[in-house]
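Ticket opened by: R.M.
Priority: normal
Category: complex prediction / small molecule

The reporter submitted a protein together with N,N-dimethyl-L-histidine and asked that the result be attached to this ticket for the collaborator who will pick it up next week. Submitted input follows.
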Amino acid sequence: MQKVYKMEHTERFAEDVREGLSSEPKYLHSKYFYDEIGDDLFQQIMELEEYYLTDCEAEIFESQKNVILQYFSNGVEVFDLIEFGAGDGLKTKILLNHFVDNNINFNYIPIDISNSVLSSLTQDLNNNLPELNIKPICDDYFHALEELNKVDYNKKVILFLGSNIGNFRGDDAIPFLKHLRADMKEKDQLFIGFDLMKDPKVILVAYNDKKGITSEFNFNLLDRINKDLGGNFNRKNFSHYPSYNPVTGETKSYLISLKNQTVRIEELSQSFTFKKWEPVFTEISQKYSLRDIKHFAKHSGFKVEKNFLDQKKYFVDSLWHLA
Ligand code: AVI
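Result attached by the on-call engineer:
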């Protein structure tokens, strides 16, 4: 089973790479950043001084956990706290600890496609917060939610934190949010993290850190194509170029070809040519205004119930219910 899954996964990866490198302009999907090495690099990014997002969200949880709890538990005996892409759950633990300390009746349901991420999170929480009811699900978000809806009628609070929403290209976030809405009931809530527009210099350094971890995070994608798809990318022939557009809020990363070159990918039986200075788009990390957030909620069938901001107003966790 695992082998079949891995095969399908590799085929999908190969086809996405073929499509991206055959396009004009070229692109690669940032979802493929996250193999074991990529997960570890992202962990290191979250600890970087320049990457303010993690600290801002942790500050929101720490300073407003009482009010957050009131909104989540409002008038219900029990609720399910469902987290999409929990990672190491570092920030979520602030809320989990607080809810457990207050003897709140709730279940924590982290959903992730990665078994190893889920099992280390579960082990960690079992050790450090043994009173917590944790029911991890290893699946894709929507399938997990559909299955859950068949057997579980508790109120659901869905967490989609860390500005993961910002990695959707353009308006692609709207179909995702609409799909999510279709799996939610009247009393359910969505708690979603958005990184706000701010001093462009602050944003740019967050994606261009001094230690070069973000650059490594991008280059890992080329290493992964070499490893999993038999590619012969030479990373010395590319450079990482992050950019921020203060008009649109788009933070985009590229790998720029430093010379005319051809790269062979065996799994695809195909070669791709790159011109000198040709960009390969690798990631978008969209930054938002509070108005954008209202727009997204409205166009996907939600209403903003409350916005929780950090002191510097860099980041917002926005609580939505069905419109
Ligand atoms: C996961 N995601 C929200 C991160 C972001 O900020 O877009 C991924 C990342 N890319 C570079 N640094 C962090």
